Every structure is written in C-alpha cells, then in structure tokens.
Amino acid sequence: VQLQASGGGLVQTGGSLGLSCASSGLRTRDYHMAWFRQAPGQEREIVAASRRSGGDPYYADSVKGRFAISRDNAKNTLYLRMNGLKPEDTAVYYCAEGVKGMDYWGKGTQVTVSS
After folding, report:
1. How many Å apart are CA 64 and CA 13, to the nearest integer?
2. Cα angle vertex 40, ends 36, 41, to 5°?
3. What pLDDT digit, counting tens, does each position of 51-73 carry?
4. What's the pLDDT tens digit per position in 16-39?
5. How far apart are the C-alpha atoms of 58 and 51, rounded to whole Å?
6. How far from 112 is each of 10, 12, 33, 56, 63, CA to CA, in Å?
7. Could you give the CA distance from residue 66 to residue 29 in angstroms, rounded to a whole number?
8. Phi then psi for 49, rounded to 5 degrees?
9. Contact call for residues 72 and 59 (beta carbons, < 8 A)
C-alpha cells in the first residue's frame, strides 16, 4: 500500500492550494480517509476526514468554511481544496486511510503560507 500526497507549495495569505493523495494497493472506497497536518514544534492534528460510507465530512474548527475534502474512489484519490490560506496553516500535510484508525500514511507535502 502506498499513499502519495502532492500539491503543496508556497502561497501568499488569502491564496489557495489543492492537495491530492493518490493511493495504490487498496480500494479507497473501503476506507475512511483523512488529511492531517503538523507544524514545526507542534503535534500532528486532523484537518478533515471523509467517511467510507459517505455523509458529511469532518473539519477541524480552524479550517471550517475554508477547506473542502473530497474523494474520487474511481481514481483512488483523496483531495483537499484549501482557500483563504493563513500563515497558521503552514505545515506538512499528510493523507491517511484506515478502517478503525488510520492504518496507512503518506509521506506528506509541505504547505507554506507567507504573510
């Protein structure tokens, strides 16, 4: 199983970025999927999550109204659209998938928001 996150980069405050996480070796429709992030000196935190059964996604309060998680199970890919980016969104973003917990993790992609 491999998860490959991409789409990170440097953006100015208020800008937008889109992240993708391509999965191989599994069918994403069988898994809950989520984005996490970890800023320097801070613990990893969940950003958004998508249930394998569908339904309303979960968002951390800090990103509600700005970020949107989506998935394309036909492509085994998870997405995160990030709008209205703030310097405090600067972090390494990781995608993860699992059934009861997060069983598989990608290596992460850096997102840097300049003020």
Report:
1. 17
2. 105
3. 998 899 999 999 999 999 999 99
4. 999 999 999 989 999 999 999 999
5. 9
6. 5, 8, 23, 28, 15
7. 25
8. -145, 150
9. no
Label residues 20-42 b or e (16+ Cβ within 10 Å = b): bbbbeeeebeebbbbbbbeeeee
Strand locations in 1-115 (E): 2-6, 9-12, 17-24, 32-38, 45-50, 58-59, 67-72, 77-82, 91-98, 104-105, 109-114
Closest to 3 measured CA to CA, from 111, 110, 103, 112? 103
Residue listed under structure tokens 């989520």: 34
Structure token pair of residue 3: 């998860």
Which letter does DSSP use for residue 56 in this model?
Answer: P
Residue 80: both structure tokens together: 């995160």
